Amino acid sequence: MSEAAERLAEVQGLIADAAQRAQREVGEICLIAVSKTHDAPAIRPLIAAGQRHFGENRVQEAAAKWPELRAETPDIVLHLIGQLQSNKAEEAVALFDAIHSVDRSSLVQALAKVCAKAGRRPQLFVQVNIGDEEQKGGCAVADLPALLAEAKAAGLEIAGLMAIPPADVEPAPFFALLDELAERHGLPLRSMGMSGDYETAVMLGATHVRVGTALFGARG
Ligand SMILES: *Cc1c(COP(=O)(O)O)cnc(C)c1O
C-alpha cells in the first residue's frame, strides 16, 4: 500500500467507527480530501487509492491544477471550500461541483446569475459564522434565515450548511448548533469537521468532512 493509501484507509476507518458509534450509515458521509497547496504529483496517489472528492480553497489554484487531473480521472468531484469573490463566481461555477462558502447576499445574486447563464447547478452550502467571530467568513447566525430566503427567491437551491468552529475551543457545541440550524431549515447536508475533529463532527451529524493534513501531511 502507498503511504497515501494507508492514510486514506486510516481516515476512512475512523469515519466508519464514528458513524457506527452514532448509529449512522457510513455511506451518508462524504470525505473531501483538501488538496490546497498540494501539487498534482502529491494528489495522484490519493486518486490512485480511490479518493474522488477533493476540496480547494482558491479558484485560481484549482483552475491551474485540476483540469489536467480531471482529464486523467473524469469522475473527480471538486468542492470549493474557501471564500469566493463575486467576480470569480462564473469561473467557480464552471470548475466546481460544490461550493461550501455561500455567505452573503451579493454572492447569492452573482451565483444565481451565473448558474442560470451556464446551465449548471453546483451543490451549494451556506457558510455560517457559527461562533459569531469577528473577522471570520460566513453569514452571521442571525442573518441565516434571510439569506436562505433570498437564495430561494433567486432560484438557488441550498443543500446544506458549512461551518468552521472557533479555533482552540471544544468544537462539539458548534457542530451541534450547525446540525440544529440545518435541521430547522430543512437542509439535508452539513459540511463540518477537519483533520483535528472530523470524528466528533461525524458523531454530530456531518455529511461532509473536509480533511487535509490527516491525508496529505502538513502543508508547507
Ligand atoms: C484547509 C481547510 C480544511 C482542512 O484542514 P486540515 O486541518 O488540514 O484538515 C478544511 N476546511 C477548510 C475550509 C479549510 O480551509
From TrEMBL:
Its cofactor is pyridoxal 5'-phosphate. Keywords: Pyridoxal phosphate. The modification N6-(pyridoxal phosphate)lysine is found at K36. InterPro entries: Ala_racemase_N (IPR001608), PLP-binding_barrel (IPR029066), PyrdxlP_homeostasis (IPR011078). CDD domains: PLPDE_III_YBL036c_like (cd00635). Residues 19-219 form the Alanine racemase N-terminal domain. Pyridoxal 5'-phosphate (PLP)-binding protein, which is involved in PLP homeostasis. This is Pyridoxal phosphate homeostasis protein. It comes from Sphingopyxis italica. The lineage of its organism: Bacteria, Pseudomonadati, Pseudomonadota, Alphaproteobacteria, Sphingomonadales.
